[in-house]
Amino acid sequence: MRRSLLLPGLVWMMLVNQTAAALPVTPLEPVYHALFSQQTALAWQQLIAVWPQLNSNAQRRAWQEALNAVISAQCGNDIPVKTPAWLDSPTLVLIQRDIPLNRIYRIQLVGGSPARNLQISLIAPNGKDLMLGATAEYYAHDQFQLESQELGEPMPMGVYQLTLRAGSEVWQQSLALQGNRNLNWIKRQGHSVTLLPPETPSACPAPWLEQAMLKGSDYQQIWSLKSDQLQMQPWPRREDASELWGIAAVDREEARGGLTLRLEHRLAGPLLTLQN
C-alpha cells in the first residue's frame, strides 16, 4: 500500500525545527535531508551511519522518530535490505513475555531455507551477541526457527548487526531497530485481560491477536486462534481447565526491506488467570 510522502515531509519539517531549537548542531542533519528529498534508501543508510555519533537521549529519541518516518511511507518495504536466494521470507521476532511475577524477553528468526546447518548472531549496540546459544528447529517444507536463550533485559533502540550462516554462505545486514522496551499492548487486570493495541502506520498490517491453550504438564498446544478483531475470544470449555496454561499475544509487523520485523507482547499463565 502506498501513500503520499507530502504529509510525513511536512511533519518532519516541524520536527526538525523543534530539534534544532534543542540541538543547534545535530548529527541527524543528513537523515533529515534524505527524508525531505524522499530518498528512503539514503535515509536508511544515514540512520545506520549516524548512530555511533549520537551522545544524548534527545538525539537518540530524534533518531527513533526519524526511523519511524522512514517506516511510515511504505511500512519499510522500500528499505534496501535484500535476502539471498537460499533464504525465504525471514522474520525477526522480538518477544516480551509477561508471566506471573516475571518478565522475559526472547528473539526468534523464522523463515524458509533448504540449509540445515544455520548459525546466527545478532550483535546489539553494546556489542553483546543476543543470539549466543540460540537453539535451532527445522520443520517440513524447509521451514526453520532459531530462538535465543531467555533474555533478562529488553532490546534497546539502535543499530544491530545480524549475521546468518549456512555453511560457506553468509548473509549479513546492519539493522536499525526501535527495540521492544516496556511494551504495554496486553495486560492482566485481576483475572481478566485488557488489550491496548499499538498504533501503526496505515501502510502496515493492522495488529492482531493470537490465543493458545496448552497442557500444563508438557506445554503441548491443544487449541489456538488468530484474530484481527483485537478482542479476547472465549476459551473453549474444558473440564481440566485448572490444569491448563493460556497464552494471549498482540503482534504487529513492519518491514526492513526483505526482512519482516515482528514485535510481540505475550501474556502467559494458568488458564484460569486469563479469563475474558
Radius of gyration: 20 Å
As a percent range, the share of strand residues is: 35-45%
Taken from the alpha-carbon principal axes, the silhouette is: globular
Helical segment count: 4
Name the average pLDDT: 91
Q: Report on the biggest sheet.
A: 8 strands, mixed
Distance, first to last CA? 34 Å
Report the count of strand segments. 13
Structural class: alpha+beta
In the sheet with the most strands, the strands line up as 4-5-2-1-13-12-10-11
Helix and strand pattern? HHHHEEEEEEEEEEEEE
The helix fraction, in percent, is 10-25%
Residue windows where pLDDT falls under 50 for at least 5 positions: 1-7, 19-24
Count of distinct structural domains: 2
Signal peptide: 1-22
Keywords: Signal
Pfam families: DUF2861
Protein name: DUF2861 family protein
Structural write-up:
The protein has helices spanning 6-22, 29-36, 40-50, 57-74, and strands spanning 88-99, 102-112, 118-123, 135-138, 143-147, 158-166, 169-177, 186-189, 192-195, 208-215, 221-227, 244-256, 259-270. The chain has 276 residues and is α+β, with helices and mostly antiparallel strands. It has two domains: 6-74, no CATH class; 88-273, no CATH class. Strands 4-5-2-1-13-12-10-11 form an eight-stranded mixed beta sheet, with no helix packed on it. Strand 1 (88-99) and strand 2 (102-112) form a beta hairpin. Helix 1 (6-22) runs antiparallel to helix 4 (57-74), helix 2 (29-36) runs antiparallel to helix 3 (40-50) and helix 3 runs antiparallel to helix 4. The longest helix is centred in the N-terminal third of the chain and has 18 residues, at 57-74. It starts with 5 loop residues before the first helix and ends in a 6-residue tail after the last strand.
